[in-house]
Amino acid sequence: MNIEIITGSPRENSVTNRVAIFLKQLLEKNTTHTVDIIDVREWNLPLLQDVFVSVDATPEEFKPLSKRMFAANAFILVTPEYNGSYTPAMKNLLDHYPKQTHKAFGIVTASPGPLGGIRATQQMQLLINALFGIASPYMLIVGGVDKKFDERGNLVDQSFQKNVDVFIREFLWLAESLYPETVLN
């Protein structure tokens, strides 16, 4: 299965990105799935003018991104909270690819504050429904992200591992249930 982790923070020194790096390493180590990170900072997408309905219908500079988006079987969305929601950069990227029918989505929010972006999770559920995706009800909400993960994406607060394990187990159950042919028996 192809899993894309979309990290939605446009900030140069994003602490949210640490979680995306950790999840990628964890999934690569413990599954046979192909896992990669789409970082909104690497794609200078214009404000939405055209929806990319296929790789061929995508402007040349964004075809590598489109190939990954269309090839993905599942997504994990990782975002900080901006004014009670996910980032505009995340929204802009996903608006270019509005139909993700029957694809599994995991929701991860992170914040240096104690609530970890809980309000953004509610908005992300609405977004995933609008994309025709299926959201895992088990979300990973990371309060104090700067104290739980170091700059290289290593988990430094081992008491948080159980939260990660539950999130990953439930996300993979959903994704693999939607695409059973991708699971090796």
From TrEMBL:
One of its GO terms (cellular component) is cytosol. Residues 1-132 form the NADPH-dependent FMN reductase-like domain. GO terms for molecular function: FMN binding; oxidoreductase activity. It comes from the Bacteria. InterPro entries: Flavoprotein-like_sf (IPR029039), FMN_Rdtase-like_dom (IPR005025), NAD(P)H-dep_reductase (IPR050712). It holds the Pfam family FMN_red. SUPFAM superfamilies: Flavoproteins. PANTHER family: CHROMATE REDUCTASE, NAD(P)H-DEPENDENT FMN REDUCTASE LOT6. This is NAD(P)H-dependent FMN reductase. It comes from Lacibacter cauensis.
